[in-house]
Amino acid sequence: MKKTGCLIAALLLCLCLTSCAKEPETEAQKASVVVGFSQLGAESSWRIANTESMETAAKEAGFGLMMENANQKQEKQIDAIRSFIAYQVDVIVFSPIVENGWDNVLNEAKKAGIPVILMDRMIETSDESLYTSYVGADFYAEGKKAGEYLIRKADAMNAEHLNIAEICGTKDSTPMRDRQKGFMDVISGDPRFTVIDSVDGDFLRSKGEECAVHLLDLYGKDGIDVIYSHNDSMTLGVLDILEQREIQPGEDILLITVDGEKEAVEALKAGRINCVVQCTPKLGPAAMELVKKLTSGEEISKVTHPEEGVFTDFDDLTDPSVEGF
Length: 325
Ligand code: AHR
Prior knowledge:
Blueprint: H1 2-21, H2 27-30, E1 34-39, H3 45-61, E2 64-69, H4 74-87, E3 91-94, H5 103-111, E4 116-119, E5 133-135, H6 139-157, E6 162-168, H7 174-187, E7 193-200, H8 205-219, E8 226-229, H9 232-244, E9 254-259, H10 262-269, E10 275-278, H11 284-295, E11 303-304, E12 310-312
Parallel strand pairs: 1-2, 1-3, 3-4, 4-5, 5-11, 6-7, 6-8, 8-9, 9-10
Antiparallel strand pairs: 10-12
Helix pairs in contact: 3-11, 4-5, 6-7, 8-9
The chain binds alpha-L-arabinofuranose.
């Protein structure tokens, strides 16, 4: 009798331990479709708006979103993807910080039968079957728009020669590589332009400031005619430094930037920036539409680019369509 009592108590304890050890299911895990989303970081206003867009769109679609923010670390993104595989999410969406180094983990997702959608940035791989779809900007076209603006501006100014300093986004990321290539492909045949330097600003406002200090110390105000930077955050950092040194942005030095956040568009309207190439962070609805189609067995396109334009000091900037995100 005593023995049976002990056995029952042990069984009850065991049951309690297993149920106590089990984490309660989160809202995301309870949904019928669960998306594992690896965001690369929070380096810019663009990125913060992009994260919000993904969260809102997932909610509106009724999908569970398991999001991990990698704080600019590729290893953390790889860990996040592995945790999504272990959890057996329905679809993995991720924004790769750099283009290379994803084949192993994406092969693991493929083996687990989990489709992968690249959102915002691309990867470099010889095996295109490692991702199902890409949704994001055409960064090469953005770089070309920046170059085309510069040619138009140089024509309008009758400029004989312009020295350009380039401030680049995160090394080896798709927007860094393609915004540089698109720009160079447009201007490099034109003898009026010399790119005097190209520095790494990692898409950060603080680094934009550092780059501006470095460039001005090295070349002086009169040695730089144009600063082309790969995003608004870095450009806003440059603006701060130019104004501290009483250099008139948009006049003494032309500023060309990419993204289109509110602060940059306002600076364009105030004549402190000359050209803002648009890059929309609002990719959530398009990404969730792809998830919906994928999980209901529909075919999806391999590449989806949003429509994007450019705002410049040649435009009527009082037009209500000229606004930032
Ligand atoms: O990948 C998109 C780029 O990343 C945006 O232009 C930039 O602001 C962000 O950090």
